[in-house]
Amino acid sequence: MRVDLLAGATYNPAVMPSPVPTILIFDSGLGGLTVFAEVLKARPDARYVYAADDAGFPYGPLSEAVLAERVVAVMERLIALHDPDIAVVACNTASTVVLPHLRKRFAIPFVGTVPAIKPAARMTQSGHISVLATPGTVARDYTRDLIETYAAGCKVNLVGSRRLAGFAEAELAGDPVSDQDLLDELLPCFIEGSDGRTDVVALSCTHYPLLLPRFQALAPWPVTWIDPAPAIARRVTQLIGGPVPGHEADDDEAIAIFTDGAGIGAPLRTALHTRGLSQVVVESWPMRLPVTQPE
Predict the structure, then answer these.
(1) In the predicted structure, residue 131 carries a pLDDT above the cut 50
(2) Is 205 a catalytic residue?
(3) What is the mean pLDDT of residues 160-170?
(4) How far apart are CA 286 and CA 165, in angstroms?
(5) Which residues contact 137 (CB under 8 A, 6 or more apart)?
(6) Can 189 be counted among the known catalytic residues?
(7) Catalytic member of 147, 205, 226, 256
(8) Among the options 33, 52, 78, 91, which is catalytic?
(9) Which tens digits make up the pLDDT trace of 20-53?
(10) What is the pTM assigned to this prediction?
(11) Is the Cβ–Cβ distance between 212 and 225 less than 8 Å?
(12) C-alpha–C-alpha distance, residues 69 and 45, integer Å
């Protein structure tokens, strides 16, 4: 069973975009493809720019200051080149830190994704929920505030995986990891005690739904998995409207941009093509900032 959540936070209303919009989907890597797939279903007529800042992947180890500086710089370049009508930050780590900076700096609306703690608390029957995220998202005060606000009556198990995002990238690149490696990361989500057991797992990194079929097969018992992508797509259509009747996007109206591209091989190009991204570009932009580790 897959459950959606209403993604995004408050935003400054913007002027309605052109009838056939350009939609920018941004992530540190390939996780945003799960969001792109759902937004594409909602607006098949739109022009798309999928941007992966793989030169900075993963974002989790970055300090908040460095992360904000980097994403704003990357977004400034993307907006200047492609003039999107709306941007989706398809990354929990970036969304929990950078969205206020982006909304202050740019006039276009931004949709983000945050840990699905509120819908998880609503869906649980046992009162035991797990939030599977990156260590950076687990450590954010934003995440703790969501728990205090929406899930104070639940037992919330925060699981920060250092490896799953990389496993998802490897899966798309044609080099899947073993079931045991996946299970090692997944098992901490499943807690069983005298007062019940985990019945909801919120996938709080957009990379993780790429592995969902394998999660479902490996899980020690059935749970409700919360994937944010469909709700993010609904939020996009709330802001820019539905498809334009009579317009169908051409093959050249969706492009994938990478800031490094070192991992792009034939399997990944095939995976991108099957998802509607036949154009793949590596940009050597002056926006590459040092990937600074937090002290």
Answers:
(1) yes
(2) yes
(3) 94
(4) 26
(5) 60, 92, 93, 96, 115, 143, 160, 204, 205
(6) no
(7) 205
(8) 91
(9) 899 999 999 999 999 999 999 999 999 999 999 9
(10) 0.85
(11) yes
(12) 33
